[in-house]
Amino acid sequence: MDLVPALEEPLKKVLGPPTAKVMAEHLGLHTVGDLLHHYPRRYEERGQLTHLADLPMDEHVTVVAMVADARLHTFASSKAPRGKGQRLEVTITDGSGRLQLVFFGNGVHKPHKELLPGTRAMFAGKVSVFNRRLQLAHPAYELLRGDSEEAVETWAGALIPIYPATAKLESWKIGKAIQTVLPSAQEAVDPVPATLREGRGLVPLPEALLKIHRPHTKADIEDARSRLKWDEAFVLQVALARRRHADAQLPAVARKPKPDGLLTAFDDRLPFTLTEGQQKVSKEIFDDLATEHPMHRLLQGEVGSGKTMVALRAMLCVVDAGGQAAMLAPTEVLAQQHHRSIVEMMGELAEGGMLGGAEQATKVVVLTGSMGAAARRQALLDLVTGEAGIVIGTHALIEDKVQFHDLGLVVVDEQHRFGVEQRDALRSKGKQPPHLLVMTATPIPRTVAMTVFGDLETSVLDQLPAGRSPIASHVVPAADKPHFLARAWERVREEVGNGHQAYVVCPRIGDEEDDPKKAGKKKSPEDEAEKRPPLAVLDVADQLGKGPLQGLEVEVLHGRMHPDDKDAVMRRFAAGETDVLVATTVIEVGVNVPNATAMVIMDADRFGVSQLHQLRGRVGRGTAPGLCLLVTEMPEASAARQRLNAVAATLDGFELSRIDLEQRREGDVLGQAQSGARSSLRVLAVIEDEEIIAEARDEATALVAADPELEHLPGLRTALDALLDEEREQYLEKG
Fold this sequence. Notes:
Low-confidence stretches: 151-157, 513-530, 665-679, 726-735
Largest sheet: 7 strands, parallel
Mean pLDDT: 80
Radius of gyration: 31 Å
Structural class: alpha/beta
Oligomer: single chain
Distance between the termini: 34 Å
């Protein structure tokens, strides 16, 4: 087939090399199809223009307005000493406000002739401030005349599409390029099966493309958007459904617990009963483990909901069935901590092969990068012989030297810290694909889970185990109310006086070189708080020890300490020998000291919402109530303060993750999770379009079950190929 399909035609051929080059470099558009999928950001109506009153500073804007006044001034300057410099000042208005345009030098002649009072045009440029007034300097413009044939044709639609543009390519130039390729939209192959499309009342794809770029009415835009949203959700869910389907075809060893084995012995030792949630999620996991294809499950649990217990029972079930289980933790501190708490929970059941070990016992080993050679050799030996049923480790587990006797289950803690490649490398160590359980304490709204972790089934643990205490959170505005900060340190002393312990968290360690370039200019108070370097562990610990917390036992913990030192500090803190631990976010994940009841987070505005929620989960883990103080110097009206108020107002992680997403836009969330692959979501909003995503997932699952190879749906296959360009193909392969 030597004819290139119309939508795959390179833009170079259609628009000429210069324009095509700018489109490729600045907008990532290479083919006619790419350009047709570059949708307008919004639409201007002829009679009703961008409000000049609410122009954002420093942004590239496109406005439609009328020239109210134009004056040419001459002035003297170094380049034109004899008063020959020329400056054209044009004032435009749209009824809501006025804006000044400025043109200099030789650039004044054309606009001086064209921009006469009463003329209407579209203007694009970067908004700046001069003499305390907003202005556009040298904006590009396009006159809106109604006379010439082409202009009538182009501007006939009452709605003017405004495209996401760049300084190099204005919105109307993109619009003109789209007009050039729009006829090709007729040849767009529709990925959605006709029955499904008709059943949902969606317009065909060529019609949707035509309506989104040249709408005559607002209803046209609605039709087009709902169709294009559905496409995005559906094609992505088909890709994930095929992934799940392919995984379901892989063989795995079914792992069922023995009737009187290790799991039973462990359950009998438990001093408490599992929560309903833990029992329900455990059942889902055991059902998956009992099948002959690999489990792929995402376990989401609120901070402190007892995920580790659920994971441990799954690991014991696999050991019972003759396999081994590996748990991958993101940091050494966490790996050591998991190892300690698991050995503690298991008691003599963790002493396999040792005197005093129970008969069903197994061996639990830890493997990290900083272990001594002898301990490491022994751990590797225990794994390859099968002596150790459970191993807990950092990415050191992934190295080539590590071999298992029979790896049956991989548990990944805090998925967002690991690349898919790492997850995969560990999975490849099984003789057959092992079962996979991914855990996260960062609650992910259901739709994001369906979009990002769509190849995993999801279980949610949302009730806290009995005995967990509520955590009171308060914002401490250190700049507005310095006495609040003094009171915070008194509260810490009171907690210590009552026999408890406290954390103080800082954004930075403090032994970095300070950048001299950043010192200097005077800033507004908000800027001051923003620009001052974040508070550092070493400085804060020093000030507290000499000042408000004098006489208390204060220690520091951060990521650059030697692993043995970190471990020693954690042990002293856990044993209650240290009163206050001043730390970086090393403690964010999994650190469990039930006696710690207070946490003061310095410069809390420097942390993300989910991160603050994670950190706060480190207190109130015992029977005494927890207290979390969010210290900030940000002014009351700032967005950062709003964020902190939201964290202080709710302990519901799912609610907070929604707030977080709404503030960041889902592109970022998907961007992070898709390992750098560009987000393919252009019109779909993960939070608002929850129903569309859920329905698309059901339709996609049914469709793939009936026709896994999509033999009868060539259009859908083409759309999938476009979605899964190589980067994403690899990403999904590895998922």
